[in-house]
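Section 3.1 - Work completed
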Amino acid sequence: MKTVFLIASLLFALQVNCQISYSGKIGKSPIKLVLHQYSDGNSRAFYAYDKYDSPINIDGYLDQGNLKLFEYDNLGAIAATLTFRNYNTSTKNLIGDWINADHSQHYKIFLKKDFSIDSGTDIQWFSREIIQPTTTANHYFKLVTKKEKNEFYARVKAVKVFQKRTDKLIQTLSLDCQLLGIDNLQVGDYNFDGLQDFSVFEASYAGANTSRIYILKDPNSETYSISNFSGTSLKFDPELKRIYEHNQCCAGTSIINSTYKVVDNTMVLLDTNCLQYDESTEEYIEVDCE
């Protein structure tokens, strides 16, 4: 158990909140790029052409001042490399190169730093909108973030829904959530009606417990509504149409697993199972749920 706690602590320590939004061009095509730089030099990022609004996920590393980011094809092979020399997070203007795998295409990259998500108790700003790396077939999303003075981290205060290609603002939904790297927003069919919904990371708790805000697509319009779905570390099974909740505490020695079905866009509890770690056998045993 101590090993698990140590690994979790190290992972948390690596997630330095250094998220930066850029805008500019690859060749002649306008793009936006969002980069999350970790303290160990690893980088996660994505960029989207303004014309299509469909993010392309990339990742890479910072090595001796050179930032290399890799774009992949559907089979997981490197399709292109984006390289920025003499990179650091404070640089306001970036010049780089986009080169495809066989070097048959080469475009210059010119980017301007729009803003960074700064942390610290003395920092304050009111509205910075971050495009998200996940979209539905018709919509893309931006998180509206705010940094209050005397609070160390920024928070998510709203999510905006835009129509792809036209950039028409469809809807703004008010939220109050923790900001988690570039993985705040996910897309899925949470009520099993065949439509693409989305969720926003809400908070992390003791151990591995997390929660999200689940936002359901209206079948009769382009809009969405915040659901009453709640629980820790929910998993969704589209085949069995079941929702599974996993809640652990006390350094992982106590676990509660629950199963739900969805009725009229509401989670209905079907079963709960409680486990307790037995140090003598080093296994989990089923116990009565209090």
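Second construct:
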Amino acid sequence: MIIRVQCEIMDMNYSIVRSRKRKKTISLQIDTDSRITVYAPSFTPVGEISRFVEEKRSWITKVMRRQSLQSTRRIEKRYTSGESFYYLGRACPLEAYYDPLEERGVTLRNECFSLNCPDDQSMRKFYFVCWYKDRAMHHISRRLEHYSSMLGLAHGGFRITSAERRWGSCSERNRLAFSFRLIMAPPEVIDYVVVHELAHILQKNHSSKFWDLVLEVLPDYRMHRRWLRDNEYRFNL
């Protein structure tokens, strides 16, 4: 059972999501619209949750400032010729056209996108999302197989989502999920997210043991994590 509660500390509003499935840890998530959600076990006292949020205040402020800056950088896609779309960290220009005698959809050749579709923004976005999801499924499947074998870990399957900021997740049953937008990032950044979620199979938190495991596999993971944080605004569709 999940219970949602709206709370406030000083000038900071946040929601509490209590769950019986969550054992001990408290975690915090900030959405793209700066909404704060705290996830906690059902028995956790409100006072303990409040102290947790207060301890995270400086980090919350930093994240919200970064989100505010990135929101000013975001440019709505029009899906017209000349725009750039990212794939594996590379910005690839788009040629958009419509030929009813050719198959509709997105293709990528010589680091240039071609989109055959009527001049309809929602339809053009649909074809791009389908293309990205397909590529993400194939690429992440291979990287999961590689790192699962390396770590000797078995996950409970994975899926591709449309999440805008949550690049990956690992459920209590070790089922993994990855945003299709991740395929826009460089391969080494994708690997970081894959290893991050696999590490949660052993450590369901972000303790020092968790980060030590990530570090063992990817000694330069901090660089990739920072790149993802600083460039996520580029992956809007």
